[in-house]
Amino acid sequence: MRTYDANSADQLTAIDTADIVPSDAVDRQEWARSSVLQAVIYGLPSVYQYAAMCSACAPPGSDDPWALDTLVHERTIAGADFEAFRVPNVDTLYSNAWLDLSDGPIAIVLPDFGSRYYTLNFLDAYSNASNVSRRTHPEQPRELLLACADWTGTVADGVEVFRVATPIMWLLMRIQTFGVADLPAVHGLQDAVTIDAPAPSARTWPVVDPRAVETSSSAFLTALDASLALNGVPFTDISHVHQFRHLGVGTGTFSVNDLDEATREGMEQGFDTAMTMLSRSRSLLGRRTESGWTRVLGKGAHGHNFFARAVMNYVGLGANVVEENCSYNTYVDHEGRPLSCEGGDDYRIEFFALPPAQAFWSITLYDAQTGWLYDAPGKKHSVGSAVNGGDGASGPSTITVSASPSTTDSPDHAWLPAPQHPFFLVLRIYQPAEDALSENWTPPRVVRSNGGLL
């Protein structure tokens, strides 16, 4: 497609007044429906992240400060009660911080992680991910200065400037844990990460509820308006986002009360249509392999693929780039039947070549309806390898997925507890090797046994 700069044309001008809106109520309703549908598709990642920030950081009272620029550490491995976001891993401990760079850069000091897997995953307001990890920084930095792309200034020797896209950033830190006995060591590493931010200006941002933005068009657009006003938009998206200003979205002053009845009706219709569309499109997140798994594509790196970006964040926030975490999921067995151990069915996964991981790999089980972890006996949510370095692809060669423990007793065999209702599996390869990235390696089939333990 040919692109050009219209400003380079001689005597070409444009008015800066607001566009007109349809005068007929029926037309206005359809116009609003179309605009809001596009606003939901474009803005869902930004809205869901803004709502998550509100849930974590909003002040209890109007005179209290927002709890920003501070790391909050998960001290236990994610379990069935973990609802910060859907589809969490159980291989690492999470640490979260919502960072506000509106008043200047933020300094982050890191400990020495040694050979242990770690990543500081920075997500901008539109869910685009960037990482500080052993993959991106083989020589681990000890101090970062997080700054917006337009910041100009100088830094001391030994400090690395790490530029990000938006003033509001979500820092999602992951540190590998080797089970419950290893938690004190991980806690020490978490506590050693420090954040130094400038004194903030007054923040009078609207507070929205994460559940409300999933069901209420008014709450959704309130959050989108606030996020657009705070973060701005990429230069290449300006014309697309400008259409939402006719609804008052992007001005920082959106109020549903400013809209007439026909526009509000269209707003509701557009929101409902978009959310239904996204729900129906969850299966499009990746490419189906011959063995029945779906390889998740384009995580954390979306460009102008707004619909794919919306579907990804509709399913779950915090997706990392595929180079950091190559993942596959399946809701069905190799014959296309939904995974469920109802009636005594169970499954076998047999690896002829283990996942090619430079760090480690895992398979984790989730409830198909909610995306939360299944409340498994013994809190055994995952199986795989927990080995760093050159032996990262080790682990069991055979996995039984069943409601009752397997009778096989072998170090090469692992049991993954499953419910007697629909579930899905996620295979994660941390810092995947080239065979995974090039798809020379794909997961083996999930084979149903039709009752009785394998």
Structure description:
By secondary structure, this protein is an alpha+beta fold. It has three domains: 21-58 and 204-280, no CATH class; 72-196, Immunoglobulin-like (Sandwich); 282-448, Jelly Rolls. It has helices spanning 25-57, 183-192, 212-215, 217-231, 238-242, 261-280, 306-315, 434-437, and strands at 72-73, 92-100, 106-109, 118-123, 129-133, 143-148, 160-164, 168-176, 194-196, 286-288, 294-296, 325-330, 347-350, 357-367, 382-384, 398-402, 413-417, 423-432, 446-448. The strands form four sheets. Strands 10-11-12-18-14-15 form a six-stranded antiparallel beta sheet. It starts with 24 loop residues before the first helix and ends in a 6-residue tail after the last strand.
Essential attributes:
Jelly Rolls; single chain; 19 strands; alpha+beta; five-stranded antiparallel sheet; 8 helices; 3 domains; 454 residues; Immunoglobulin-like
Helix-strand blueprint:
Blueprint (H helix, E strand, L loop, with lengths): L24 H33 L14 E2 L18 E9 L5 E4 L8 E6 L5 E5 L9 E6 L11 E5 L3 E9 L6 H10 L1 E3 L15 H4 L1 H15 L6 H5 L18 H20 L5 E3 L5 E3 L9 H10 L9 E6 L16 E4 L6 E11 L14 E3 L13 E5 L10 E5 L5 E10 L1 H4 L8 E3 L6
Parallel strand pairs: 6-7, 16-17
Antiparallel strand pairs: 1-2, 2-8, 3-6, 3-9, 4-5, 4-8, 10-11, 11-12, 12-18, 13-16, 13-19, 14-15, 14-18
Envelope shape? globular
Number of strands: 19
What does the main sheet amount to?
A: 6 strands, antiparallel
Radius of gyration equals 24 Å
User: Would you tell me which CATH topology of the largest domain applies?
Assistant: Jelly Rolls
Work out the helicity level.
10-25%
- Biggest sheet strand order reads 10-11-12-18-14-15
List SSEs in N-to-C order.
HEEEEEEEEHEHHHHEEHEEEEEEEHE
The CATH superfamily of the largest domain appears as Domain of unknown function DUF1214, C-terminal domain
CATH class of the largest domain: Mainly Beta
Structural class: alpha+beta
Instruction: Tell me what portion of residues adopts beta-strand conformation.
Output: 15-25%
CATH hierarchy: architecture of the largest domain: Sandwich
What is the averaged pLDDT score?
91
Count of the domains: 3
Amino- and carboxy-terminal Cα gap: 55 Å
Q: State the low-pLDDT regions, or none.
A: none
